[in-house]
Design a protein that fits this description.
The complex is a heterodimer of chains A (about 800) and B (about 260). Chain A has about 800 residues and is α+β, with helices and mostly antiparallel strands. Chain A folds into 3 domains: about 425 residues, Multidrug efflux transporter AcrB transmembrane fold, CATH 1.20.1640.10; about 140 residues, no CATH class; about 150 residues, no CATH class. Chain A has 26 helices and 12 strands. In chain A, strands 3-6-2-7 form a 4-stranded antiparallel sheet. In chain A, helix 11 crosses helix 21, helix 13 packs across helix 24 and helix 21 runs antiparallel to helix 22. Chain B has a single domain, classed as Lipoprotein localisation LolA/LolB/LppX (outer membrane lipoprotein receptor (LolB), chain A). Helix content of chain B is about 20%, strand content about 45%. Chain B is globular, with a radius of gyration of 22 Å. Classes of the chains: A alpha+beta (about 800), B alpha+beta (about 260). At the A-B interface, helix 4, strand 5 and helix 19 of A face strand 6 of B.
Chain lengths: ~800, ~260
């Protein structure tokens, strides 16, 4: 271990160098670029992203906020006044508001008794003083379909206040570094919470409001949970190591690595996805604990047995460095497979986690030996040549496992099969209720709106690019658009559709004395053009919402009522097919929040399979290379697949959906689980080479590595379980699933791996004179003591 | 000594306050004078013109529309216009009577040649609404009236040798889309040459620049106005051609029959 000797010799120089490097790297954090938006999930150049951008380019900002008013009767003077005030307050207090639509803002187009077209607001010319007036208002409100259909329920108990926005400027942030959408969401959220609107029971939906609420909750919770998990980990590590320096080293390493990661990402101008920063930080703390505990367990053991600090450091690293290098390689390989997923935040999590693990690896291998070698040797009193109680318990466990091989394997196989069956029940879902849950105020409000008669859960846009300019004025094309709309309305999940058709028909009807026979698209092209001209000149730039400036694009907006991935996917495919058949030579794109969510699911599932398969292949290859044995590589697979199978199974039985957080969990667990396996096999192999007896080798491994694995699993479980306190369902699920996965990996390492290693004679034949069945427990102890005294020199290759 | 400093400080503060108050009064007074000069600009009792409306959206796509326009002022302001371009909307006509009376709605008629039908439209259109889908509200397009704005003089401005007054304008007669407007008034002809419109949050919303300033038959007029809506990223250019002032226009042009007869030459 020349390098350890070198580090020990120049330890102060090494410590100083690392501290200076740390300061330099961390100084980069002043250029930190944080992305707080949730809409940058797709990679640049993604076809759906491009289609969405094209849509926004033509029809403007598709973000909106819908505020639902729910009251006994909207038509009271007080409520109408409040609705009006709400609209005014939003227009005057929220940035980027384009229009506010409400029963107090919109105009009603109708025919009066003399046959004149009247265009007035609801209350214009009416007083709000008594019940008769209110009844007259109610009557007026239901004259114009376009007015009440979207703004008022028939029973007058619910009303919608909708906000549209001007295009959000690209490089705008407020003083809290919030994007335009989130900043607008915050101000709307603050307005609707005001006491004076309490009687309106306001609920809001729309990305600006939902994203603001999510970001503020996730931001706050991430901070608190990171602090709690850090604190708990420190306490447990302190309890295990009973060494102030050990605990300090573990967490100083983690904190240094976290800060350095942020510094490096800033230097590299990588945007920090603040919503998902919690994941790499958790991984960082976890890995730091794992590596440190392995080194420190061996270090303490050597200090305990012979007391020479420098030698103990050298021996501890000699015992562990190969395992740490290989576990590092496999973990990083597993994390880097995230880069194959087509979603920005998954790539960010993969990259930043790989970076943090690399930094921890470097710090543990260089900084830790330098710091550990500073200090005195253990006093003669403290040097004790005996095992701890814990080690003895693990020895007993080893004996029990090896003595009950068949029972253990059978039980494991049954549970394994049950879990595989559970996996088949797992559903992919990115819907708000299942991923975020109703505990979150923002989500609860949005779902309340969605479930009302006026709201919708999601919407999507059918964008039809016609071959020539002015084609959108053609009566045939408008009729085809109308027919397509009717087809879409036949789908069970469609709540409402919106397009230029409604406006043309409505104007036509009004111009013809409200005669329902004229509630149709006119056959004459000029008539259509003139109705469109009327609509546009009456509605200002808002006309651009449905037809573009060159009359080349149709926009058909579809609002959906419930969320079933499969049904909606089929519907969208069917719309695409029908639209293409109806408009030959036209380009049809379906964009919006729902197709984006569906596409993301596809990417997630695809990414999940890719990352898991790739990680598994890389890890197996590494195991085969490291242990120079295909057999060992394949045996090593079992404990690595276990976390995935157990997590999948539990998710299936508990109805936890695969979402953007749980999806990243399985490859991450694979990266963590493989560490345990490598430590176990590595130590076992060397113990076997010394003893030529599987039971003894395994017993020795249980006492040393087994103990370390128990501690790391305990700390990791506690660390991840802090997430279960989150009010965000997916983070809570991640907490549960991480613990399940980590424990599954440990159980497989304890109960399956040793039996398989022995039964399959992974390291070759035993030597004949040492047979466990004929040996007493005392015999094993004596042998182990002998092994310790000989100072096991593990060698991997 | 302390007492002396205190008295001095109070004196300074009071005099600064006095100066400020005095300045405000002066600014308001001068603002009012400028406003009166602007109101006094004569734009004739009748006008006939052709107008090209160019709307430019955020993608830079243009929509061009042309109208011919007749206006006759009096107790009732009568307006008639026809669309002449694009071809498929040629002949769409619009007639309106504005009664200048509180509480009395305008009378408006609309004619669609494709249906050969005239419809009366009864509406109390808000002056804050956008006019013909442009970036101008009805209020932006009209000359302000004496009792509806408060003007405050800011400073004199010299731009390329032309002298302007810069004024802040506040709408005093009820609702408005703006918190304030800042205008430049040409000191020689008293026309409003530039206006910046600020929204209720104090952010710049729109700006209008008039150009092609000409004296036609003794009437100063701007032949082109370019309005940019910075928030919507949308623009409108209004170009006036063949404008005639104070010509004889018979009342029969402002009838439904004239509307149905079609485009005036």
């Amino acid at each position: 271990m020349k390098y350890i000797n070198f580090i020990q010799k120049f330890r102060w120089l090494v410590i100083s160098f690392i501290l200076v490097l740390f300061v330099v790297i961390v100084s980069g954090m002043q250029h930190l670029k944080v992305n707080t938006s949730l809409d940058k999930w797709f990679k640049e150049g993604d076809p759906l992203k491009q289609a969405t951008e094209q849509f926004e380019d033509i029809f403007g900002n598709d973000q909106f906020v819908g505020i639902l008013v729910e009251t006994e009767d909207v038509f009271t003077a007080e409520n109408l006044k409040l609705i009006e005030e709400l609209g005014e307050e939003i227009k005057n207090g929220v940035p980027f508001v384009d229009e506010v639509y409400s029963i107090m803002e919109n105009e009603i187009t109708s025919l009066d008794a003399e046959g004149s077209i009247t265009i007035r607001s609801l209350t214009q010319g009416n007083s709000l003083n008594n019940k008769t007036d209110m009844n007259a208002l109610k009557e007026r409100a239901f004259i114009d379909d376009n007015f009440y259909d979207r703004l008022l329920t028939k029973d007058c108990k619910q009303s919608m206040v909708a906000i549209s926005f001007t295009p959000f400027p690209a490089n705008w942030t407020d003083d809290k570094q919030q994007t335009p959408s989130v900043a607008a969401g915050e101000l709307v959220s603050n307005i609707i919470k005001k006491n004076k609107y309490a009687s309106l029971n306001l609920n809001a939906t729309g990305l600006p409001v939902v994203n603001y609420q999510l970001l503020s909750v996730i931001g706050k919770e991430t901070k608190i949970m990171t602090m709690i998990s850090l604190l708990l980990s420190i306490l447990i590590t302190a309890f295990i190591l009973r060494s102030f320096r050990g605990v300090m080293m573990t967490f100083v390493t983690a904190i240094m690595a976290i800060l350095m990661m942020l510094g490096i990402l800033s230097f590299a101008q990588v945007q920090i996805e603040s919503t998902f920063l919690g994941m790499p930080i958790l991984v960082g703390i976890a890995i730091s604990i794992c590596y440190s505990i392995h080194v420190l367990t061996f270090f303490k053991r050597h200090m305990r047995f012979d007391g020479n600090r420098r030698e103990a450091v050298a021996k501890a690293f000699k015992d562990t460095y190969r395992s740490i290098i290989f576990t590092y390689l496999t973990t990083v390989a597993a994390l880097l497979t995230f880069l194959f997923v087509e979603i920005e935040f998954v790539r960010f999590v993969g990259l930043s986690s790989a970076l943090i693990v690399s930094l921890i690896f470097a710090l543990v291998m260089v900084f830790m030996p330098a710091v550990l070698s500073v200090g005195k040797n253990a006093s003669a009193k403290k040097v004790r040549q005996e095992e701890t109680k814990m080690s003895k318990r693990f020895e007993d466990l080893s004996n029990w496992v090896m003595g009950n091989g068949k029972l253990v394997l059978t039980t494991f196989s049954i549970v394994f099969v049950i879990m595989i069956y559970g996996m088949t029940k797992v559903e992919v879902s990115t819907d708000w209720e299942r991923t975020y849950g109703r505990k979150l105020e923002g989500i609860n409000m949005a779902l309340n709106v969605a479930e009302s008669d006026l709201g919708a859960l999601f919407s999507y846009e059918v964008l039809i690019e016609l071959p020539n300019m002015d084609d959108a004025k053609s009566p045939e094309n408008l009729k085809k658009l109308e027919a397509l709309g009717k087809e879409i309305l036949k789908f069970e999940d469609t709540k409402r559709i919106n397009s230029i058709v409604d406006y043309v028909k409505n104007f036509n009807k009004i111009l013809n004395n409200n005669d329902v026979a004229y509630d149709v698209i006119p056959d004459n092209r000029n008539e259509v053009a003139q109705l469109l001209y009327l609509y546009e000149t009456a509605g200002g730039t808002e006309a651009e919402d449905w037809v573009d400036y060159e009359y080349k694009y149709f926009r058909l907006n579809v609002e959906t009522d419930y969320y079933n991935t499969q049904v909606i996917k089929e519907n969208i495919a069917s719309i695409q097919e029908k639209a293409e058949a109806s408009f030959p030579g036209s380009k049809v794109s379906i964009v919006g929040s729902l197709p984006q969510a569906l596409k993301m699911q596809d990417y997630l599932v695809d990414g999940q399979i890719k990352t898991f398969a790739l990680s598994l292949i890389i890890i197996t290859m590494l195991l085969i290379i490291v242990f120079k044995s295909i057999k060992v590589g394949l045996i090593g697979l079992i404990p690595n697949i276990s976390p995935a199978v157990f997590v999948g199974g539990v998710m299936g039985y508990m109805g936890i959906p695969l979402d953007m957080v749980t999806i990243t969990l399985i490859p991450m667990l694979l990266g963590l689980a493989v560490d345990d396996t490598i430590h176990f096999i590595n130590h076992c192999k060397h113990a076997f080479e010394e003893t030529k007896n599987y039971n003894k080798a395994i017993s020795n491994t249980f006492k040393t590595v087994g103990l370390a694995l128990f501690f790391t699993t305990l700390i990791l479980s506690v660390n991840f379980s802090v997430n279960t306190t989150s009010s965000v369902k997916m983070l809570c699920n991640m907490g549960i699933m991480s613990v399940v996965g980590i424990i599954a990996a440990l159980l497989a390492d304890y109960f399956v791996l040793p039996i398989l290693l022995k039964n399959m004679k992974a390291f070759g034949e035993e030597s004949e004179e040492t047979d466990i069945n004929s040996e007493s427990a005392t015999g094993i102890k004596e042998h182990n003591k002998l092994v310790e005294e000989k100072e096991l020199e593990p060698e991997l290759v | 000594m302390k007492k002396y400093i205190l008295v001095l400080a109070v004196f300074v503060m009071v005099s600064m306050g006095f100066v400020t108050i005095n300045n405000e009064t002066e600014a308001e007074k001068k603002g009012k004078e400028i406003f009166e000069k602007v109101l006094a600009v004569n734009d004739g009792n009748t006008r006939k013109s052709s107008m090209t409306i160019i709307k430019i959206n955020r993608r830079g796509k243009k929509r061009v529309e042309k109208i011919v326009n007749l206006v006759k002022e009096g107790e009732v302001e009568k307006t008639l216009f026809f669309t002449t371009y694009p071809a498929d909307v040629r002949g769409v006509g619009f007639l309106s009577f504005d009664y200048h009376e509180d509480g009395k709605d305008d009378d408006r008629w609309l004619y669609l040649p494709a249906t050969k039908k005239t419809r009366r439209i009864s509406s109390a259109a808000s002056r804050n609404e956008y006019f013909l889908g442009t970036d101008f509200t009805y209020r932006d397009a009209e000359k302000p009236e004496a009792d509806e704005e408060k003007w405050i003089y800011v400073k004199d401005v010299n731009k390329e040798g032309v002298y302007y007054w810069e004024v802040e304008r506040y709408i005093t007669d009820g609702e408005s889309n703006y918190s304030k407007m800042v205008s430049l008034i040409d000191q020689s002809n008293h026309l409003i040459i530039e206006t910046q419109y600020f929204d209720k949050r104090g952010e710049l919303m729109k700006s209008a620049i008039a150009s092609g300033i000409k004296e036609i038959n003794g009437f100063w007029t701007a032949l082109e106005t370019h309005m940019i809506n910075h928030q919507k990223n949308h623009q409108t250019i209004l170009k006036t051609e063949n404008i005639e002032f104070d010509i004889e226009i018979d009342d029969h042009f402002f009838t439904v029959m004239a509307l149905e007869n079609g485009v005036i030459d």
